[in-house]
Amino acid sequence: MFSSTREGLALALPAAIFALLLFIVPVGILLSEAFQSDTGWTLQGYVDFFAKPLNQTVFLRTLKLGVLVAGTAAVIGYAAAFSISNLSPVARGRVFGLIILPLMISPVARTYAWIVILGRTGIVNDAIIGLGLSETPIRLLFTETAVFLGLLQLFMPLMIISLLSAMENIPRDVIPAARVLGASWFQVFFKVILPLTKEGLVVGGTLVFTGALTAYITPAILGGSKVLMLETLLYQRVNVANDFVSASVIAMILIVMSFAANLLLKRIATARK
Amino acid sequence: MKNLTAWAIIGATLTFLIGPFIIIIFAGASAGEALAFPPDGLSLRWYLKVFTIESFRQSFVLSMGLAVFGTLAALLLGVPAAYALNRYDLPGAETIRTIVASPIIVPGIIVGLALLRYLVIPLNFTVTMALFLAHTALVLPYAVRVVSSSLNNLRSDMEEAAVLLGCSRVQAFTKVVLPNIRGGVLAAFILGFVTSFNQVPVSLFLSGPGVRTLPIDMLAYMEITYDPSVAALSALLAFMSLAIVFVAERLLGFSRYV
């Protein structure tokens, strides 16, 4: 540990000033824009935003999809992470590599695949028509289901990674011990695994929920203008209508929702103690 | 039996996560005109066509430049910051940490819009310049975090010994610290590169005539044309990312740092 404060600040401040000027100040001005009017401070931008039925729908849909994606990712993530944590070290390393592999691939590429799967001439529609379940292709793209699947695929690795690293903290013998003492798998999960991994769940849940809220590509490609989410709505408001007040309101909603999710999950995690 | 269940779960999860990507590879290798899976015969025509599309070539060069130089700039700012935060007792260290990490917390689309409104338009920054600054800011948190964790593993008495033995502070850094955190810096570079290259929301509003990052260009292309070339390009880019990560993993055990 060196003592010269001046030297330390000289090293650290360029990065901080850079982030401050390029990041915090412009974003701060953008967020303040909805509170300003010709006569002074106002909440009118927020009132107007939430008065529109379309905006309400989009807000609730974004919230709903975020919760659904994070919840589903948690359920599948626990099953997957528990299975992976019981593998031999070599197999575990390989499977872990395959789980994080998608994170390195462009989200555009990963989302584009769903067009091939869910499109009018896609695999699912081929199967549906082949099996005689329907005469004509069913519309699967531009539905909430398509956006849900795309988001789940995009963000599930983050949940699995978080849960896996939390599961490393479960002592080896605890689960067999609980089983020997007569606990059902249901009890083992809620009394042993969940309490010991809740920090991983908080991290994973926040990452997935926030990721789903703020994803642009997935709702843009798989939802289009039929299934708008807050991000795509923001883009549309700015590009089509030059509506910067709505943009500012949406920006604030997204940031507040991300923080709220993190706080809420932390609160739940500590309440269980 | 228990093992079988575990592998079934893992298999299903991996199919869901990686299956779509395999479909993309084959859809791009179609011999037909339309995007389909299974493809109408196999050929490499779309994989080759990608290289002849002028806008893809331009946007690839831009994305590459942003990813390389934006990440280098982020390291130039981030490595000293990480070093100072780790080795000095700074007043307001927590505040500095939060400020530097903030670009991760705020959705990219908002950053892009804010920079467009308050940097490009009033201050006459070029779009390219704004993109470069935005990508640097975006990678900065990763650079600081990865280099920090690498510094944490390096005992600080080594530098103190170097200084006692007659090195200047700067020499102690370049001769002792830097060689020891090389792996972390390289890992930060790769992580930053991949993040920047694949980034969409930040660049969404920051594009002008002839200035478009590759992912944005792909989005625009697929709105007009429904042929397999975007699938082919997606597959090629994915292979590029994987190759980089694979080499990094072989050279320095990249996944330790992520």
Automatic annotation (TrEMBL), chain A:
<feature type="transmembrane region" description="Helical">
    <location>
        <begin position="140"/>
        <end position="164"/>
    </location>
</feature>
<keyword id="KW-0812">Transmembrane</keyword>
<comment type="similarity">
    <text>Belongs to the binding-protein-dependent transport system permease family. CysTW subfamily.</text>
</comment>
<dbReference type="GO" id="GO:0055085">
    <property type="term" value="P:transmembrane transport"/>
</dbReference>
<feature type="transmembrane region" description="Helical">
    <location>
        <begin position="176"/>
        <end position="194"/>
    </location>
</feature>
<feature type="domain" description="ABC transmembrane type-1">
    <location>
        <begin position="59"/>
        <end position="265"/>
    </location>
</feature>
<keyword id="KW-0472">Membrane</keyword>
<feature type="transmembrane region" description="Helical">
    <location>
        <begin position="201"/>
        <end position="224"/>
    </location>
</feature>
<feature type="transmembrane region" description="Helical">
    <location>
        <begin position="65"/>
        <end position="84"/>
    </location>
</feature>
<keyword id="KW-0813">Transport</keyword>
<dbReference type="InterPro" id="IPR035906">
    <property type="entry name" value="MetI-like_sf"/>
</dbReference>
<feature type="transmembrane region" description="Helical">
    <location>
        <begin position="96"/>
        <end position="119"/>
    </location>
</feature>
<protein>
    <submittedName>
        <fullName>ABC transporter permease</fullName>
    </submittedName>
</protein>
<feature type="transmembrane region" description="Helical">
    <location>
        <begin position="12"/>
        <end position="31"/>
    </location>
</feature>
<keyword id="KW-1133">Transmembrane helix</keyword>
<dbReference type="GO" id="GO:0005886">
    <property type="term" value="C:plasma membrane"/>
</dbReference>
<dbReference type="InterPro" id="IPR000515">
    <property type="entry name" value="MetI-like"/>
</dbReference>
<dbReference type="Pfam" id="PF00528">
    <property type="entry name" value="BPD_transp_1"/>
</dbReference>
<keyword id="KW-1003">Cell membrane</keyword>
<feature type="transmembrane region" description="Helical">
    <location>
        <begin position="244"/>
        <end position="265"/>
    </location>
</feature>
TrEMBL record, chain B:
<keyword id="KW-0812">Transmembrane</keyword>
<keyword id="KW-1003">Cell membrane</keyword>
<dbReference type="InterPro" id="IPR035906">
    <property type="entry name" value="MetI-like_sf"/>
</dbReference>
<feature type="transmembrane region" description="Helical">
    <location>
        <begin position="185"/>
        <end position="208"/>
    </location>
</feature>
<feature type="transmembrane region" description="Helical">
    <location>
        <begin position="60"/>
        <end position="86"/>
    </location>
</feature>
<feature type="domain" description="ABC transmembrane type-1">
    <location>
        <begin position="60"/>
        <end position="248"/>
    </location>
</feature>
<protein>
    <submittedName>
        <fullName>ABC transporter permease</fullName>
    </submittedName>
</protein>
<feature type="transmembrane region" description="Helical">
    <location>
        <begin position="125"/>
        <end position="144"/>
    </location>
</feature>
<keyword id="KW-0997">Cell inner membrane</keyword>
<keyword id="KW-0472">Membrane</keyword>
<dbReference type="GO" id="GO:0005886">
    <property type="term" value="C:plasma membrane"/>
</dbReference>
<dbReference type="InterPro" id="IPR000515">
    <property type="entry name" value="MetI-like"/>
</dbReference>
<feature type="transmembrane region" description="Helical">
    <location>
        <begin position="98"/>
        <end position="119"/>
    </location>
</feature>
<dbReference type="GO" id="GO:0055085">
    <property type="term" value="P:transmembrane transport"/>
</dbReference>
<feature type="transmembrane region" description="Helical">
    <location>
        <begin position="228"/>
        <end position="248"/>
    </location>
</feature>
<comment type="similarity">
    <text>Belongs to the binding-protein-dependent transport system permease family.</text>
</comment>
<keyword id="KW-1133">Transmembrane helix</keyword>
<keyword id="KW-0813">Transport</keyword>
<dbReference type="Pfam" id="PF00528">
    <property type="entry name" value="BPD_transp_1"/>
</dbReference>
